[in-house]
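Quick illustration, no need to memorize.
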Amino acid sequence: EQRDMCKITMSTDGGANCKTSVSCDGEERDYTPQWTSCFVGGRQYFTDDRIGDFSIVNAEKDTDDREGLTHPILQVKYVGDWAEYDVDALATEAFERSKRKSPFEYPNKENICGAPTNWKSDQSITYVCAAPKIGKGPEGMDSTAPVNEAGYATGWCGVHVTQHQKADPSKDSYKFDVRINDSNEDNIGEITGVEANAGYTLTSKLPHGLVVTAGAVDADPVYFDYNGLIWGSNDQEQSCNFGGFEGGKREGDCGFTC
């Protein structure tokens, strides 16, 4: 799975016994007990706080009763406002293209579902499809989270920083360009060319300011403080990814709950 993508696994067995799970970042959650509409045409709704609301409809039943319920239609609320994905058609296409890359390596709007398993071989059939986390995903199947009254999408926000190297380390200060993106990766606050020796507070559409503080030397991390959550640009818990200085500057990104 890509960092911004999850996978939805759906299966039926013996004409019923619908099963569904969602896996993100190696954590799988089983939603099978929620199935109450495991019949032809029954639309079952689920809620997962990582991808949002989604639904599955098993549109048909196999004529020879070997796989039971077939032709699932997958819909994810924040992807195209419940856009329909014909899972069977997408999976069949993947099956026929043996050299196709895994949808979880290279997901896009034409490459969403992998080839089905147990297809035409026993009484069950299993499909696996990619789904973006809320506010994430590649072009064509990106997820758009709702925007609140303050004008931003809550969830996981990002901060992008460009740190400009000191022209004269004996007397000059670092200067920073800072941008905050909301859960939809939309710009909700930005500043350029500021010093942050004693901490600079960037205000945005968020209810609290983000404090950015420079280290003393190039090897030091950049420090952040959002509403009491404090971390450095080398903190993996905040998904930080900062490079080294090159051409007089370094750039990086971190995330935080907003």
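The chain has a mean pLDDT of 87.
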